Amino acid sequence: MASCTTHAPVSPVCASLNMMQVRAVITQAIANARAALTSQKQLNEYMFRIGIDEPLNMPSQTKTYHQHYAAFSHLNQPAAIQVDSGYIVQYATEQITSQLMIGVDELNSCPGVQMIWHELISPFCIRRDAICDVNAKYRTIDGSCNNLQRPLWGRSNRPHIRFLKPHYMDDIGVPRQVSVTGEQLPSARTVSNAIHRQDPCCPLKERDLSLYVMQWGQMLDHDLTDTAIAKGANDATIICCNLTQEVLMKRSECFPIYIQAGDERFKESCMNFVRSIAGHSDTCDMGRRNQLNQASSFLDSSFLYGHNDEDAREIRSFRDGKLKMTNSGLFPAGTNDQTNCELEGKGDYCMKSGDFRIHVMPGLTAIQVMFLREHNRLAGVLQQLNPTMCDEDLYQEARKIVMAEVQHITYAHWLPFVIGERLWKQMGLVPSPSGFCTSYDCDLDPTISNVFGGAAFRFGHTLLQNSVLFMKGQGFHIRNEMGFNRPRMIFDDNAKGCSYVAMGLSVHPASRADGQVVDSVRNNLFLDMNGRSFDLISLNIQRAREHGLPGYNSWRKFCGMPYAIHFGTGPGGLVDHNPEDAKKLHSIYRHPDDIDIFAGGLSERPVEGGVIGPVFSCIVGRTFHNLKYGDRFYYENEDSRTGFTLAQLNSIKKMGLAKLMCLHFHTPHVQMVPFRMPGPTNPLVNCAMFEDLDFSLWKQ
Ligand code: HEM
């Protein structure tokens, strides 16, 4: 039989292109992009020199709110991210599409154009690559080679995936600023004030959930996402406010938030906002702006172990499989992390863990410390059982168990409180009560999506309280503003402060997930000595716009839910909102298609038994589905090389958060389910009653 090769038909657009002209346009666009990059850098250096951009703080100085925020805009590995390449690719794409007046998808579908583009861009953009050891027993630190066919899937320092095509004003990278009716969209701060303002009385309690639900969520977030934000010269914070229009236009990374006169909190008319870095695709294709995740996508406890090899090495002791830990059981100071937090007491220092954001709130520090102590406990017991095991094997085995504990608590205990039991079951997220459940699907891309980090998983901001409950003695409240980026509470009473903070989380009710957000983050985020602060919710809304995330209605469609064509709550309207919330949305948006995904999603009525509404549950549920089924090392998978034995797995499935708290926070008792408040249906239990791992199963 004759074999035949089929060629895709050349589209009329491709056929009409003059390749000489295409080459000239691409050459010029890349040259323009490089020139623009140089002038950006020169401008950044100038703004730093004349004292407009804020330098990264030096140790022990009092920090400004910008310097506190810098922990969130820290670049872990600027070279690996290829900041310049992303800029050039995006800038050149904008120029090429507008010069040729052809959309980027059409251009990319022309093989001739692709060839010329790749030839000309290759000196300025390195394709990402990974070399795998197919026999490796353990996960890599950066997530590469989890999928042996697609070794980059889920790796750190790559772009997010998109569940939906981005919505940019120019289709390439300019954020959405205009309503479908043609008028300006309301400013992010206006949306925040109208939709997310806390009732003046007090935050309501979320059923009987404790603040551990919130804190576990933030820990997961720092395991899964760390979006890279643009920096000025010498890592300075780029300042976008109080600039002349001319300078502002030149600062392409600026997208400041305008504040209306008469705002309840801010006297100034502008809140600083710097765009996330534009990242290029793995193969340096022409394309729309996308953002980079510095964290590995997998649920691999990278908040503890680091998102890349360099960080992982820095926190290891390289003795007996242990991580570096002080005598008080805390992370030590890092070599170059002294600028990462505000030092207030004698002997305070900024700790170095796997994630740079460790100090953002004391509760987060405490939970990370819990897993530091757990890792070292496990390494110690494994060594006693197997005295000949080397440092590397002890480290990897202890790490493997910690990762399994985090996965188990997340899937078995935490997720149902967040997305509700129905979806938890429907999406196949329930671990089996005992035994293996092999679920790996090598065609499923586990890379974190842009909408997850840029909007949906920020739901935790609504669960926050205004204070930290510090359980020293009878316990007392300390306002969050005293805790942002300040480790003082942790160091209190010879580092017992860490336990006081952690125990407070389990007896402090979470705020109700009603879309309202407490003032301490909505008005006073990173409050500094000069009384300056951010609104976290404005940052969220603006972030989603600048990432090109389509509006709420598009996500309803994505989740198979009907589009809202009016602001009522009846059929055809905002059927998942309470009438008061729908009214608030109506008061500021001109059309349902304008509703921002963060505002629309967060203000939905929670699903039954969960804390988030149907749209956020759909996005979060889908993400955890991908993280389970797309992870070759998921803890329930049966694999004689990379997995656990059946008996080991069953032993891990008996471990829960309560046991970990007992082990690491000096407490005689904890309630059965720490994600819920203690009470008659969730009584305090003596720590001796909680099962530990059966370590004999790890004797080799
Ligand atoms: C404890 C108090 C918290 C503070 C002070 C805080 C603060 C912040 C800040 C400043 C950002 C960056 C905003 C931007 O410029 O885009 C951020 C991002 C984020 N937050 Fe929170 N947050 C807190 C708790 C939480 C919780 C409980 C969750 C989830 C359950 C969460 C999920 C996220 C996510 C997913 C991002 C995006 C991260 C990324 O892509 O890099 N946060 N948060």
TrEMBL record:
<keyword id="KW-0479">Metal-binding</keyword>
<feature type="binding site" description="axial binding residue">
    <location>
        <position position="461"/>
    </location>
    <ligand>
        <name>heme b</name>
    </ligand>
</feature>
<dbReference type="InterPro" id="IPR010255">
    <property type="entry name" value="Haem_peroxidase_sf"/>
</dbReference>
<keyword id="KW-0964">Secreted</keyword>
<keyword id="KW-0325">Glycoprotein</keyword>
<keyword id="KW-0732">Signal</keyword>
<dbReference type="GO" id="GO:0006979">
    <property type="term" value="P:response to oxidative stress"/>
</dbReference>
<keyword id="KW-0349">Heme</keyword>
<dbReference type="Pfam" id="PF03098">
    <property type="entry name" value="An_peroxidase"/>
</dbReference>
<dbReference type="InterPro" id="IPR037120">
    <property type="entry name" value="Haem_peroxidase_sf_animal"/>
</dbReference>
<dbReference type="GO" id="GO:0005576">
    <property type="term" value="C:extracellular region"/>
</dbReference>
<dbReference type="GO" id="GO:0046872">
    <property type="term" value="F:metal ion binding"/>
</dbReference>
<keyword id="KW-0408">Iron</keyword>
<dbReference type="GO" id="GO:0020037">
    <property type="term" value="F:heme binding"/>
</dbReference>
<dbReference type="GO" id="GO:0004601">
    <property type="term" value="F:peroxidase activity"/>
</dbReference>
<protein>
    <recommendedName>
        <fullName>Peroxidase</fullName>
    </recommendedName>
</protein>
<dbReference type="InterPro" id="IPR019791">
    <property type="entry name" value="Haem_peroxidase_animal"/>
</dbReference>
